[in-house]
Write a structure and sequence with these properties.
By secondary structure, the protein is α+β, with helices and mostly antiparallel strands. It has helices at 21-28, 56-65, 114-124, 198-201, 212-225, 272-280, 294-299, 336-343, 348-353, 391-400, and strands spanning 9-20, 36-41, 70-72, 79-81, 84-89, 95-100, 157-163, 174-175, 186-191, 235-241, 245-250, 263-268, 286-287, 303-316, 362-364. Helix 8 (336-343) runs antiparallel to helix 10.
Length: 423
């Protein structure tokens, strides 16, 4: 997320889960036949390796194939222990120690070990920060967006180590007690400095824990397309055709709540209208729709839109590092006054409530945190100094900055230079 010196345009979108009425009774019914859910989504996926992609469709799969040290409760968006049985911070907040859950197995039956945890975190670190002991034979280029790497998220981490220290009876400890001397069951993460959202970092799906031994054997390509045995999540890999579908089957030996369905199938289609039509025709049971489709879904006899508070964000970012161009110190967007003026030229209410955009299913963020998160502070995230839609004010800001039309073409000229690319 781009952070600039003035408030940027940011919205949080509610989660839309669409279920036919018939599915609810079908899933809960006591039947001997295989229970299967089909989901229509866009594809193909970028990768089945959680290290490689932040694409939303891929993330839907990661949270079913893999586990994380800590996980979000899907209904109240609070953190709960995952593969970490608990955690403890040092007094100065720079060290975070995880107790690793015992008796967890990967999908191929291998026991999950603290070493798998250590290796999975090390793999996500910038190469310059990985320890000398890290085996980098399985690292490879990231399959995400061109020019973007995941490493910047973890620059705050200084080191990762395995420990055998146990935990004191500390009030800051969350989860089960660990006992010193029972093996290397703790993983210690040291940060460059105290980092407020440190624990949230380990709920991120890019830090899912993978089976080190399987990742070594499969290599990058097979991890990307057929990670058999690599995860410990509630569903296991079964079949993947990048042009058609992905199939996952129930992990009956899951350490947490065992799934109530036997198989989940993601069917790939780029066309939004095809996904909606498949839902209405009961060819699939779940879609993540566009906001403008909600009314159609609720007006159809066998479907209903379930709307929950979500964390999906949409934003309009300003390129503060716009390329330097001939004869100028920088592009127009590198100027904070220009960005401020543009912030007053955005029709926020139209974006929020237009049926063709968010259709009333989003709220404007006054800061970087959605109001559904427990860390949200309405005293900090106030609207007092946040830009609102006011074109007159936007023009006044530019006029006062001397950014005016100098050549009579009705387009303002940046730095008084006519006919340039930043008009």
């Amino acid at each position: 997320m781009l952070r600039i010196k003035i408030t940027f345009v940011l919205f949080v979108l509610s989660i839309l889960i669409i279920l036919p009425f018939t599915l609810l009774s079908y899933v809960n019914a006591q039947q001997t036949t295989e229970k299967e859910i089909k989901i229509a989504t866009y594809g193909p996926l970028l990768s089945l390796d959680p290290y490689e992609s932040y694409q939303p469709a891929d993330l839907e799969v990661y949270c079913n194939l893999y586990d994380q040290l800590v996980m979000y409760d899907p209904f109240n968006i609070t953190l709960r222990p995952g593969l970490a049985s608990g955690w403890q911070f040092s007094e100065n907040g720079t060290v975070l120690i995880f107790g690793i859950r015992k008796n967890v197995t990967f999908h191929n039956g291998d026991p999950l070990t603290p070493y798998d945890v250590w290796w999975s975190i090390e793999r996500a670190l910038p190469p310059s920060k990985r320890s000398a002991e890290f085996n980098d034979s399985t690292t490879h280029s990231w399959a995400g967006l061109p020019g973007v790497t995941p490493f910047s998220l973890y620059n705050v981490i200084k080191s990762v180590k395995l420990m055998d220290i146990g935990f004191n009876n500390s009030l800051s400890y969350v989860g089960e007690k660990a006992v010193a001397g029972d093996g290397w069951n703790e993983c210690m993460v040291e940060f460059n400095s105290a980092f407020a959202p440190a624990i949230d970092l380990f709920a991120f799906l890019g830090l899912s824990i993978v089976n080190y031994d399987i990742a070594e054997k499969l290599g990058p390509e097979e991890m990307r397309t057929a990670p058999v045995g690599a995860g410990s999540g509630p569903f296991m890999f079964s079949y993947y055709d990048p042009n058609l579908k992905l199939e996952l089957v129930k992990n009956s030996n899951y350490w947490g709540e065992v799934p109530k369905v036997d198989k989940v199938v993601w069917l790939f289609t780029i066309d939004v209208s095809e996904r909606l039509l498949a839902l209405i025709n009961d060819e699939v049971q779940i879609i993540i729709p566009q906001p403008f489709e909600v009314s159609t879904i609720n007006e159809t006899s066998n479907t209903v839109a379930k709307i929950y508070n979500g964390l999906f964000t949409r934003y309009i970012g300003f390129n503060c590092y716009q390329n330097v161009t001939s004869g100028r110190a920088g592009g127009a967007l590198s100027n904070v006054t220009v960005r401020k003026a543009l912030s007053y030229a955005v029709p926020y209410q139209t974006i929020l409530f237009s049926e063709s955009i968010f259709n009333g299913l989003a709220e404007r963020l006054m800061g970087s945190l959605p109001s559904v998160l427990p860390e949200y502070d309405e005293n900090i995230n106030s609207s007092e100094n946040v830009p609102y839609y006011n074109v007159t004010k936007a023009n006044e800001i530019l006029d006062n900055a001397g950014i005016v039309d100098v050549d009579g073409d009705s387009i303002r000229d940046y730095l008084g230079l006519a006919n340039n690319s930043t008009d």
